[in-house]
Amino acid sequence: MDEFIRQLTSGTSQIGGFGIWETVAALGLSFVLNLLIAYVYRVSHRGPSYSVSFVHAMIIMGVTVSVIMLIIGSNIARAFTLVGALSIIRFRNAVKDSRDVAFIFVAMAVGMGTGTGFYLTAVIFALTMSGMIYTLSRFEIGAAVSREALLKVHLPSDLDYHTVFTDVFYQHLREASLLSVETLTGGELVELVYSVELRPQVSEGALLDAIRPVIRNNKAVVLVGQENIDV
Predict the structure, then answer these.
(1) Which of 110, 103, 115, 132 is nearest to 32 (CA)?
(2) Which structural domain range is residue 10 located in?
(3) Would the pTM count as exceeding 0.90?
(4) Dist. CA 101–CA 14, nearest whole Å
(5) What letter does residue 226 receive in the DSSP assignment?
(6) How confident is the model over 103-115, as pLDDT tens digits?
(7) How far apart are CA 138 and CA 44, in angstroms?
(8) In angstroms, rounded to a whole number, what is the distance separating the alpha carbons of residues 123 and 108?
């Protein structure tokens, strides 16, 4: 115990070849850089699948990778031992967004950089990736330019849904594809879900105003951003 206190106060204790204060610096820097990555993830995220648990897990993973790299050092036997120990872990949660996978790799890379002593490399990488991610999100690079949406309507069952919307769709839409048909309220109503693309000059409100008389003022909903919606 006395020897541990002496090494702690003198800063000569070694962890995987690093002094104790170097270890603290590596973990602290990894935490700060992964906080930056997590912040960029939050401000650039699109869609309803945002998870605070994923953000926390990303930060924890980055810091943990730093510790793993410190422990391994240049010891090959220790590296194989850790690989064998970690191989028993099984992850059951499916990652819905491939973008989330990319952020996991970024957090791991930051952890590896700080854990192996490449502090400047880790800082430059984190700052560069943050700028790249923000630019991709801010200017919507790669986004398809279209006015696609989901249209959900409740139609009286005595109307033929194959032909009742022909005129309305021709005037307001470029394309319309029927996705699902479901009966409601004991067969009195039919719920229809369409994938539609509006014409450039047509608004969502104008489409709903045109549909409402056809469906006798029953429910009609336009869902935009349908790429983030599970039907």
Answers:
(1) 110
(2) 2-138
(3) no
(4) 34
(5) G
(6) 999 999 999 999 9
(7) 8
(8) 13
d(CA 227, CA 29): 37
The Cα–Cα gap between 155 and 157 comes to 6
The one-letter amino acid code at 120 reads L
CA angle 205, 186, 161 (to 5 degrees): 45
- Give which of 55, 159, 56, 162 is closest to 100, Cα–Cα: 55
Assess contact for 192 and 153: CB atoms under 8 A: yes
Question: Which residue numbers in the chain have pLDDT < 70?
Answer: 1-18, 74, 77-94, 143-146, 225-231
In the chain, the amino acid numbered 58 is M
One domain, residues 25 and 70? yes
On whether residue 143 sits in a domain, the answer given is no
Would residue 122 count as lying in a domain? yes
CB under 8 Å to 90, separation ≥6 — which residues?
none
CA 161/CA 147 separation, integer angstroms: 23
